[in-house]
Design a protein that fits this description.
Helix content is 85%, strand content 0%. It contains four helices and no strands. α2 runs parallel beside α4 and α3 (58-76) runs antiparallel to α4. The protein is elongated and about 75 Å long.
């Protein structure tokens, strides 16, 4: 009876791991999309900077440094964490552009 119980338990564990994988995959994709949208929202700050109303440097600088760190972390992991890398690369780009437009207005 123990071998039957073990087989049943293994089967449930396999099914649970498949469901967990799918849920993690969906969350990963949604988080990637939301992170990119968060960085794209910096376009409004860039427009404000170019219109002569510069935003404070601290926020875009902190955001850009955060994006650099998360991108580096995702890239340097033993198995690259592509959603983490992909979602934070726009933060580096928009951070640089936002910072540059603070001084070019």
């Amino acid at each position: 009876m123990n071998s039957e119980t073990d087989k049943s338990s293994d089967r449930r564990r396999f099914i649970d791991s498949n469901k967990r994988y799918k849920v993690v995959r969906i969350i990963s994709e949604l988080a990637t999309i939301m992170c990119v949208l968060m960085y794209v929202s910096y376009i409004a700050e860039i427009k404000s900077n170019l219109a002569g109303n510069p935003v404070p440097l601290s926020q875009p600088l902190t955001m850009m440094l955060d994006a650099i760190l998360w991108t580096g972390y995702g890239w340097l992991k033993q198995y690259r964490d592509w959603p983490l890398v992909i979602s934070n690369v726009p933060g580096i780009f928009f951070g640089i552009v936002t910072i540059l437009t603070i001084y070019v207005h």
